Amino acid sequence: MNICVFLSAADLDDRYTVPAREFAKLIGKGGHTLVWGGSECGLMKVVADGVQEAGGRLVGVSVEFLAANARASADEMVIAKDLAERKALLLAKADAVVIMVGGAGTLDEATEILELKKHGRTTKPVVLLNTAGFYDGLKQQFLRMEAEGFLPVPLTELVFFAEDAAGALAYLEESVGVQ
């Protein structure tokens, strides 16, 4: 399975890097491919290292203005002309999506895939990995949107909130039909 992971390229502390490394190892050991922003920086590097060390493949999609930070040892690297093309390529190469901790860029990527699901433009499973409660506030906001009628489909059809790496991967494998 090709798993697109949206996440930060920032250097973060252990409460985020340890669970990210755990998830990366599960991807690699499971024989899956990481599809990610291609960066050799921060949490993106941590996840790519973990996947590669555990035997998984790496498919990166960087963008022209960040190409200097692209991982040279990726199995495949594509350089998109802009962020919109990058998101489209990441999603096209993926069977499933995991949203890990991140900033405004990660939030932008997350809301785009959820908007596509809402409108039936994709059926790919989406997991929001709520490491250290990072997305508790966002989950509350989504629940409010659902309760007040802003979501035309149930939240559970848009995204699965996972509290740990094993739960995230199990949900994806079940959703995609990996045995």
Quick structural summary:
The protein is an alpha/beta fold. The chain contains 7 helices and 7 strands, in the order βαβαββαβαβααβα.
Largest sheet: 7 strands, parallel
Q: How would you sum up the global shape?
A: globular
Instruction: Count the E strands.
Output: 7
Number of helices: 7
Ranges where pLDDT stays below 50 over 5 or more residues in a row are none
Mean pLDDT: 96
Report the portion of residues in β strands. 15-25%
Classify the helix fraction into a percent range: 40-55%
Distance between the termini: 11 Å
H and E string: EHEHEEHEHEHHEH
Give the C-alpha Rg: 15 Å
Q: How are the strands ordered across the major sheet?
A: 4-3-2-1-5-6-7
Helix and strand composition category: alpha/beta
Question: Keywords, please?
Answer:
single chain; 179 residues; alpha/beta; seven-stranded parallel β-sheet; 7 helices; 7 strands; 18% strand
Give a description of the structure.
- The protein is 45% helix and 18% strand.
- It is an alpha/beta fold and 179 residues long.
- The protein has a seven-stranded parallel beta sheet, with helices on both faces.
- Helix 1 packs parallel to helix 2 (42-53) and helix 1 packs parallel to helix 7 (165-176).
- 40% of the residues are buried.
- The mean pLDDT is 96.
